[in-house]
Specification:
Blueprint lengths: L1 H25 L16 E6 L3 E3 L4 E8 L7 E10 L9 E2 L4 E5 L2 E9 L4 E9 L5 E7 L13 E7 L3 E7 L2 E3 L3 E9 L8 E9 L5 E7 L7 E5 L3 E9 L4 E9 L4 E11 L2 E14 L68 H8 L16 H36 L9
Parallel strand pairs: 2-10, 12-20
Antiparallel strand pairs: 1-3, 3-8, 4-7, 4-9, 5-8, 6-7, 9-10, 11-13, 13-18, 14-17, 14-19, 15-18, 16-17, 19-20
Helix pairs in contact: 2-3
Length: 420
């Protein structure tokens, strides 16, 4: 039904405004001489219910048309107002009669009447705020029975709620110690403007209390208020585009345990979804360590004399005489090689056993008889003497055998060999 009526209303309003414009062109003066030269045309203004709101906040727009003429009523007043997005009027109404209608992102007022020095206000135009950004309003020139008036515009900023974080430093302390609670707020990058009018509140759990605190004086401003034992509040923070602000408060710990502090935000009188918490762990104090003040002397090591070893005399090697071979008492060897007649020879060649006995090296001293306790040089000397002695015995025995054989040949066959 509305779609069928709207074109008719717009057509009639066009005819009406054209007629009003012709009347104004014919006579654009006021009958009151005191108002000659003074503008008496309608004046329009527009506004939103807030300059800045968070996403999903409830917002309305309104516009007002004023008749500045104190003597004449303005009739056939009308205007068209356009928004930068589709509006959803909740209960729009005009307080000056006429016909009020909406279509898409436009609102129309037709045929209103405004008494002298009176106003006509259109309210209850609902504005959707589901997305962050800037919403604008722009009006056409206001129409009346006299002439066209002015136009107007307005805007509102819809912001994404700031991000909130909180942390204790240090996060673990001993009972009776202090820690610093820092709460940080950041304007997200999706907001292409400064966000103002932000309120932050935090509450400490029972067991830890507020000591002292400081808030940024620039660039965020804000007023810090702490209420012992557990409340922290900052009013009217202004956060630059993509900027951060923070507040730091010193807290005192109580009994051993784990404590969680919570913080939240409010903007434009509405609670924001951003919340934060921080955990503080309070531990038992470390046991005291007592340091002795008396110096205990360190005993010096006593010098232990090194015992002297008794001098052990080195035994002198005993001279072991090398036994000389005993030549036969019945034999005397002369240098000329002749044998004295008095030296008897064996009665027969069978006496070679005696030669073997003489030639046997067993007559030499036994090497095994050398004492193993003698020094190596002594042993070598003894061994050399034994070898030399054995060689002498063999040489003498061989010589005797040669002489004996020679004498036998001299004696001739059938003769008895001379005895050696």
């Amino acid at each position: 039904m509305r779609h069928r009526v709207l074109p008719l209303v717009l057509a009639l309003s066009a005819v009406f405004w054209s007629a009003g414009g012709a009347v104004a062109a014919a006579s654009n003066t006021d009958s009151n001489p005191a108002l000659v030269g003074r503008s008496t045309l309608p004046v329009i203004s527009a506004a939103f219910s807030a300059a800045q709101v968070p996403v999903s906040a409830s917002v309305t727009a309104s516009f007002t048309i004023k008749n500045p003429d104190p003597s004449n009523t303005r009739t056939a007043v009308g205007v068209a107002v356009y928004f930068s997005l589709v509006v959803t009027p909740s209960a729009p109404r005009a307080l000056c009669g006429g016909i009020l209608t909406t279509s898409g992102n436009s609102v129309y007022l037709l045929g209103a009447t405004i008494v002298p020095s009176g106003t006509c206000q259109v309210t209850g135009i609902g504005i959707p705020t589901s997305q962050p950004g800037v919403i604008g309003l722009q009006s056409a020139v206001v129409k009346s029975d006299v002439a066209d008036g002015n136009s107007t515009s307005a805007s509102i900023q819809v912001y994404q709620g700031p991000e909130l974080t909180a942390a204790f430093a240090p996060a673990s302390i001993e009972a009776g110690s202090t820690s610093i609670l820092t709460i940080t707020i950041r304007n997200p990058a999706i907001n292409a403007f400064t966000v103002s009018g932000i309120w932050m509140g935090a509450k400490l759990p029972a067991g830890i209390t507020v000591a002292t605190g400081t808030a940024d004086a620039s660039p965020c401003g804000g007023t810090l208020t702490t209420s012992a034992p557990d409340l922290i509040r900052v009013d009217n923070w202004t956060i630059p585009q993509n900027g951060t602000c923070h507040v730091s408060v010193t807290v005192s710990s109580g009994p051993i345990g784990t404590y969680k502090a919570a913080a939240g935000l409010d903007g434009g009188g509405q609670s924001l979804p951003s919340v934060a918490s921080a955990t503080l762990t309070v531990m038992a104090p470390a046991p005291a360590v007592t340091v002795a003040t008396s110096a205990t002397p360190v005993p010096k090591p006593s010098a232990t004399p090194v015992p002297k070893l008794p001098a052990t005399p080195v035994p002198s090697p005993s001279a072991t005489p090398v036994p000389s071979p005993s030549p036969s008492a019945a034999m005397s060897i002369q240098a000329s090689g002749s044998i004295a007649p008095s030296d008897p020879l064996p009665a027969s060649p069978s006496s070679s056993a005696a030669v073997g006995a003489i030639a046997s090296p067993s007559a030499a001293p036994s090497v095994a008889a050398i004492s193993t306790g003698d020094s190596p040089n002594t042993a070598l000397l003894l061994l050399a003497g034994a070898v030399i002695g054995a060689a002498i015995v063999l040489a003498v025995g061989g010589l005797i055998a040669v002489l004996w054989l020679r004498r036998r040949r001299i004696a001739g066959p059938g003769e008895a060999a001379p005895e050696l």
